[in-house]
Specification:
This protein has 5 helices and 4 strands. With 162 residues, the protein is an alpha+beta fold. The radius of gyration is 26 Å and the shape is extended. It starts with a helix and ends with a helix.
């Protein structure tokens, strides 16, 4: 009991230390919830480094539509020159139906499929928006859940970290 009187010297030993209030408990819970994504990410990266396994969502595929083949090639080359991707597929013309300014439109477009790190998606999106001729270019990404481990490692080796 001597340690108790050292920790709470102003209170008689019989009373014990006061318990943390609701505010303290709320602060601890809030900080725990806010830190969870960071701690989980660090734990997954550590696990991946130790075991050599792939962490789902480390890489992503982005889809970008272009008006024609020349614009698609120019954007793909610019993405590669900036090392924002390891690989860009340029798919041939596809038909598209969409609403634009309240009207149903129909066109042909070229689709880019971009393989990159998930951490580069924001930079990729900002860069493509700055060079794309569309007023609102389609830039959509999906995380890669699983894949050929050697291919995923190749993406990692060819797209620099942030």
């Amino acid at each position: 009991m001597e340690w108790l009187s050292q920790r709470c010297p102003l209170l008689p030993a019989a009373q014990g230390c006061p318990r943390p209030g609701r505010g303290t408990l709320l602060l601890v819970v809030t900080l725990s919830l806010l830190m969870y994504p960071v701690l989980r990410s660090l734990a997954l990266q550590l696990h991946s480094a130790i075991t050599g396994s792939y962490v789902s969502g480390t890489h992503s595929i982005a889809f970008i539509n272009c008006l024609n083949e020349q614009i698609a090639k120019d954007i793909a080359r610019a993405i590669m020159d900036k090392k924002l991707a390891a690989y860009v597929n340029i798919l041939p013309k596809s038909s598209a139906l969409y609403f634009w300014k309240g009207e149903l439109e129909e066109s042909t477009e070229i689709l880019l499929i971009v393989k990159t790190r998930t951490s580069k998606i924001g930079e990729l999106s900002n860069y493509v928006r700055s060079i794309h001729p569309f007023e609102i270019p389609e830039i959509i990404s999906l995380p890669i859940d699983q894949g050929n481990p050697l291919y995923l490692k190749w993406i990692e080796e060819n797209v620099p970290r942030d």
